[in-house]
């Protein structure tokens, strides 16, 4: 089966990488519709497909949807109608900027008897592999708490999701401080001491006590492993991540955002 895919929200550069890879896999899926203005960019992304003005027009036209809107606060509104109609959805990072919205999408997927998934593209990169369990994990990377695209969630999801991969489990209470120009969040997850360092600029780096430190390198095709995971989900009908795994980084970042607001107010 060749899955007909609709793309919702095209302002992210991820849309280009996703569409480019899907075009190399015509036996698996093809983009048949793009939601947005009928400008040159969207017509290019649509290719032989169509550009439609609203997401609702995709219902009945597609077998799956990819939400690539930059603002995670809009993802619930965009994804839920498809999930409720039984259409599988991949929400590009972040799933949401509030736990309540993420849970609403998961509930809609259950009602619709379909799958929803979301993750940082960095989770699937080779540089994130090969680490064993250690007593402490530190992940560092760029993030802008003032971003108009959901604040700390926009890039911070990469940092938080990498930490969840390396130290899976239910995150405990988060403590946030400012240290050496970085926003630092500390919590315990599954018996592992986790430290997140959100910096203004710099590479993504991970360190697992007893296993070493490594930069997570991003090449021109860094979104491809995530697209492959999405295609596997469509073929199998099984979501690659459990709900709790997707919720964990949202829980952490929600606490980070709240504490940053408190620090500013103080």
From TrEMBL:
InterPro entries, alphabetized: Gfo/Idh/MocA-like_OxRdtase_N (IPR000683), Gfo/Idh/MocA_oxidoreduct (IPR051317), NAD(P)-bd_dom_sf (IPR036291)
One GO molecular-function entry: nucleotide binding
A Pfam family it matches: GFO_IDH_MocA
Boundaries of every Gfo/Idh/MocA-like oxidoreductase N-terminal domain copy: 3-117
Protein name in the entry: Gfo/Idh/MocA family oxidoreductase
Native source organism of the sequence: Kribbella sandramycini
């Amino acid at each position: 089966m060749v899955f007909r895919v609709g793309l919702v929200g095209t302002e992210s550069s991820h849309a280009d990488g996703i569409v480019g890879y899907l075009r190399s896999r015509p036996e698996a899926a093809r983009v048949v519709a793009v939601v947005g203005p009928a400008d040159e960019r969207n017509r290019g992304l649509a290719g032989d497909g169509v550009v439609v003005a609203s997401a609702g027009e995709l219902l009945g036209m597609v077998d799956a949807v990819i939400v690539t809107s930059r603002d995670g606060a809009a993802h619930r509104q965009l994804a839920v109608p498809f999930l409720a109609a039984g259409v599988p959805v991949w929400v590009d990072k972040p799933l949401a900027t509030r736990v309540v919205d993420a849970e609403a999408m998961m509930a809609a997927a259950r009602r619709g008897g379909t799958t929803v998934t979301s993750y940082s593209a960095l989770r699937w990169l080779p540089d994130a592999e090969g680490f064993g369990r250690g007593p402490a994990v530190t992940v560092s990377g760029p993030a802008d708490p003032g971003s108009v695209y959901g604040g700390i969630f926009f890039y911070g999801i990469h940092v938080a999701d990498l930490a969840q991969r390396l130290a899976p489990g239910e995150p405990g209470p988060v403590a946030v401080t400012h240290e050496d120009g970085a926003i630092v969040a500390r919590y315990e997850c599954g018996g592992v001491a986790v430290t997140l360092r959100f910096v203004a600029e710099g590479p993504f780096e991970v360190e697992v006590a007893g296993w070493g430190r490594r930069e997570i390198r991003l090449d021109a095709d860094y979104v491809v492993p995530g697209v492959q995971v999405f295609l596997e989900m469509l073929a199998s009908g099984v979501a690659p991540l459990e709900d709790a795994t997707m919720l964990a980084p949202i829980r952490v970042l929600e606490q980070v955002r709240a504490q940053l607001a408190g620090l500013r107010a103080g």
